[in-house]
Amino acid sequence: MVSRIDMSEFSRAAVADLAEDVQGDLETYVKRGSLQALSSIVEASPVNEGRFRSGWITTANATSNYAPPPGQESYPNDAVSKGSSVIKSLKGFPVVYIQNNVEYGPFLADGSSAQAPAGFVELAVEAAFA
C-alpha cells in the first residue's frame, strides 16, 4: 500500500507566509533608509540663509513643484519632520522622492558651496541604503 500526502497546501501556505515576511522586511528597509537619507541630506545641505536647507520636500509616487519663496525660510527640522510623516505613512512599495526645487539647488548639489561636497545628496542616499 502506498501512502500519499498532498504537500501543495503546505507549500502554498509556506510561500504565502514567506511573501508576507519579505514584504514587511522590505517596507521596513525602504522606510528606514528613506528616513536616514532625508535626515542626512538636510543636515549636509549648505546654509546661507536657510532656504535651501528648509526646502527639502518628501513625496510618494509623484514629485512636487513646491519651493519656498525667497525670504520664507523655515527651520530645517520642518523638512525632516514633514518628510518623516510622509515616509512613516507609506504602505507597500511606492517611489519615494526627496527633492529640493530651490532654483539654485542644482549648483549646490554640484559642489558650488565649500560647505558640502559635490554629490552630497547621492552620497547620503548610498550611505542610507548600504
Explain what you see.
The protein has 130 residues and is mainly alpha-helical. It has one domain (8-128). It is built from five helices and two strands, in the order ααβαβαα. It has helices at residues 8-44, 51-54, 76-88, 105-109, 120-128, and strands at residues 56-60, 96-100. It has a two-stranded antiparallel ribbon with strand order 1-2. The longest helix is centred in the first third of the chain and has 37 residues, at 8-44. The termini are far apart. The model has no long low-confidence stretch (mean pLDDT 87).
What's the structural blueprint in terms of helices and strands?
Elements: H1 8-44, H2 51-54, E1 56-60, H3 76-88, E2 96-100, H4 105-109, H5 120-128
Antiparallel strand pairs: 1-2
Helix pairs in contact: 1-3, 1-5
Search tags:
130 residues, mainly alpha, elongated
Structural class: mainly alpha
The outline comes out as elongated
Question: What pattern of helices and strands is seen along the backbone?
Answer: HHEHEHH
- Kindly report the average pLDDT value: 87
The unreliable regions are: none
Radius of gyration: 21 Å
Strand fraction: 5-15%
End-to-end distance: 56 Å
What proportion of the residues is helical, as a percent range?
40-55%
Q: What is the domain tally?
A: 1
The number of strands is: 2
Quaternary structure: single chain
Number of continuous helical runs = 5
- Describe the largest sheet: 2 strands, antiparallel
In the sheet with the most strands, the strands line up as: 1-2
Gist of the model:
By secondary structure, the protein is mainly alpha-helical.
